[in-house]
Amino acid sequence: MEFLDAVPALFAQGQDGKAIALGLGTGLGAIGPGAGVGYIFGKVIESITRQPEMRDEIQSMMWLGFALTEAIVFYALLMSFVAFFLAG
Amino acid sequence: MTRRLAALATPLALALAAPSAAFGQEKFQPQNEFKVEPIGPELKLGPVDMSFNRFVLYLLITAVVTCGVMIYIAKRMEGRPNRVQTAVEAAYDLTSNQITRGNIGNAKVAARWFPFIATVFLFIWFANMIGFIPLPTNFEQSIEIGPVAIPTFALYAATANFSFALVLALVVWFSYHIEGIRAKGPIVYVKGWVPEGVTGIMAVPIFFIEALSQLLRLGSLSARLFANILAGHMLLLLTAGGMAVILASQSGMSPTYALLNIVTIPVGVAFWLFEISLVATLQAYIFAMLSSIYLGEAVEGH
What we know:
The structure holds 2 protein chains of 2 kinds.
Chain A: H1 2-13, H2 16-50, H3 55-86
Chain B: H1 2-21, E1 44-45, E2 48-49, H2 54-75, H3 83-103, H4 107-131, E3 135-145, E4 148-154, H5 162-184, H6 186-191, H7 203-249, H8 260-300
Antiparallel strand pairs in B: 1-2, 3-4
Helix pairs in contact in B: 1-7, 2-4, 3-4, 3-8, 4-8, 5-7, 5-8, 7-8
């Protein structure tokens, strides 16, 4: 990844803005999915304690929901890379 | 148990030793882990780069391993299954009953698309798992063991390249649209994007939103797989020594930065275990699951 190549140069030229964009973009993008993943697992624990016989069905849905929510962090990461590379 | 631990620990130790060994070399660039540079001669077919590179190598390994392992196991199916056969049977059950038949209500369509979805699942799974095994594929550096020089061990996954995920997503995208049009005819199919109950003038903006979301599926399906695996590999790269190398490269390669690895390598091992035990399988599962959800939705409508 070229961004690793760019890290020393960023510090040298004082262009900290891009690094801040990358860090903030990913970090802020992780807030929502973090809450979402926690909500999913909390609800799953709740549902399984209520209806233990539904465990398998609930768990397969849990993984789907987990992966869909978690992917949002990576969209934020990708967009942060775009900001990192393409911002003048 | 000891033998299994040794089998697990040996490649891990090799992989973790590799970045630390970089301090001995003059120039080490951790980002080269993700570069796809041609191996051997460059082949250009007009504007299309056809040269053999590391991504193609991983793709070939994945295809050969997927076909080889599955055909080998299928040929020696036994009445009293051993552990591997049980695992493969569980994968068959997962792809056949849970993923395909659970989401595609029409039994005929489910039978038609089960081979495709199972293949996609297994192919992505093998690509992910091979990506977490250190293989001698870093052709820019080499270790000399006696008289032979072998390339440095590297972690690289075919799935960590956007083209892999995009091509698979394109195949899925076109096949579910075509299947939907075949089942219902083009006009009914396109009309079926609008949720039931929406009528009158409101149907027009909702139709455009739905059409946009059909396009966005292409991006989300591919970016989810690719970004997950790439982020996992980057995390492993940084914790397994890349961080120390980057920090050291700013201060004249002072070897004291290698001490940072004492802290980061256990974290890297933990992430490696997390990736192979959960993320690799989960991403393959999600891709196959969403493919069959889209297929089922296209055939049945809302």
